[in-house]
Amino acid sequence: MPMDAVQFSILIQCPDCGAATPLNGITTSVLCAQCSAVIRLEAQYWLRLIGDFIREDLRAARGESDHTEVVAPWGKFTVQHGHCAPVCPQCAEELPESAWQDLSGPIHCPACGQPVSVRPPPDWYARANPAARWLLGETFEAEAAKQAEPGPISIHCINCGASLSIDGRTRKVVCKYCDSDNYLPDQLWLRIHPASVRKPWTILLDTGSTGYLLPDEIEDFCDVAHAPDGGLIAAFVEEYDDDEDDDEDDEDEGEVEEDDGPVYARIVKFDPDGLVAWVRKDIDFNDKARLLCTPDGRTLALVLPYGEGLVLLDPASGQTLGRIDCLDTTGEQPDQPPERLRPIQIHNAEGVALAPDGTLVVLRNGPADRVPVFTRYTLEGKPIPMWPAEPAPEPVPEPEEAPREKGGFFRRLFGGREEAPAEPEPPVAEPPDWEALPDRLLVPPRHVLFTFSPGGDLILIAKDRSRLAHYDAEGKLVESHAIAGLPEVAQWGGIGADELESVYLAYLPPNYWESGGGMHVIRLPLGGQPELYRGWKVDPACQLGDGQAALKVRADGTLYLGGACDNLRVVSPDGEYSFRSPATVEIDDIDRKRYEEHNR
Description:
- This protein has 600 residues and is mainly β.
- Helices cover 12% and strands 31% of the residues.
- Strands 1, 2, 5, 6, 9, 10 and 13 form a seven-stranded antiparallel β-sheet that branches. A four-stranded antiparallel β-sheet has the order 14-15-16-17, with no helix packed on it. Strands 18-19-20-21 form a four-stranded antiparallel β-sheet, with no helix packed on it.
- The longest helix has 17 residues, at 43-59.
- The chain is elongated and about 105 Å long.
């Protein structure tokens, strides 16, 4: 893939003397040339300092640059940054693209002949930004070497004339013969510590074919899914473009009002190496949208907000395979019927899931006493039997709204319509008890969550996580029992199942903030008792964040978790991270330190 370049030129204000000191590369410490104080810049601060700039610059046109003043608790910075090609740090001549697109060895400036430094980014930075490949034009190491080797210097005590011993660490030197203080003049001090000049340096990035990097912060997170290659797919709303005339005192700040501007919704697929494989920016949705995928990850559907419909996508390329409109439409042509049947009824659904065979299963409350009913559809919108050997259900349109009767003067004047007699509702079976679940379940107990295993088994969980029921692909009840031994829970997250029909539940333990651990995942083996699967109580190095509302499980037990762009990760069955977003790496480092302090 072709490399992209983001150029930086940075000054940091010394916290001791206030002097501006150049940061001519990614380094965790730099020496102030004015007072010799060591200015330290931890890894997490670097990620915050340049992370947003990289994303902004990649979206700008080539050659565009910006100047930004940054004031943070950990430093004051002046940052020149832009979507610009690398330049020689000696003569500022732009390096030819052929020299840095395919780095196979050292680079020399074609104008002045001086070598240009090239190195891979430090491990801590590469883990947080997997798109970064090379750092070009850094000069901080050469400047530090000059300061460390000032050459022979001869100076004598102003009081007794004896030779002074200078180590270069302080400007005040005490004579060992007469104990008098000698202050090194500026000319001598600058010879020992040559003043650095701010110079540009460049990060080369391989962003794939999209040029997109995940932001640290977003407006709302929607859902995650997994692709056949093991990559992660995330749907989120990057930002709302609110109108300036919106009421500033609006209490529902997170709600998209009708008067708001466009919503910048994104669906992003990351490959197993953490690079962006594709991005969809052209589908409108908000935080109520959900991603559905079959357990093998080969079918992906975006459920639009409020049951408007589904957009079917190819997980490999992101291309649209089809769209199903699930809302009623009123015909505007005289020869069109006033209503058409809904191909898939997901409006106000209690739950929606894709089965391994690519069919869609909807749990929706029926018209009578809001009794929940399962319905299965093909992705072409055709109702099919929920279980084998059952007759296919007939599609039923939503009941028409009864015409309003006009009364009084207006009825006599215009002739109001007679109110249509109400039709009796068809009888609906009562929801069964958990202790008496039938085979080929169509009406489940109230208040349930459900998911499918890779083998096609349907698994029901009570919303309070107190009960579990397991049906095989033919509709036969395999097990139904109470769940005992669950830990104390402050908040529940998502559910999923693996190829062994083990169920996974994400939860947040009480007082998680004090411990610094965040969420955990419980595994419920088939016919067994719950056990902790992942989280800091299992492995202190495996942090799962504190807001994982979205959970998907691959057949082998790999977890795909999401709650925000700084809480987005893939955890393999052995407990190792196979993917974390850049902001997630930073947050995990902070949580790990808090965890270590809590457990000292």
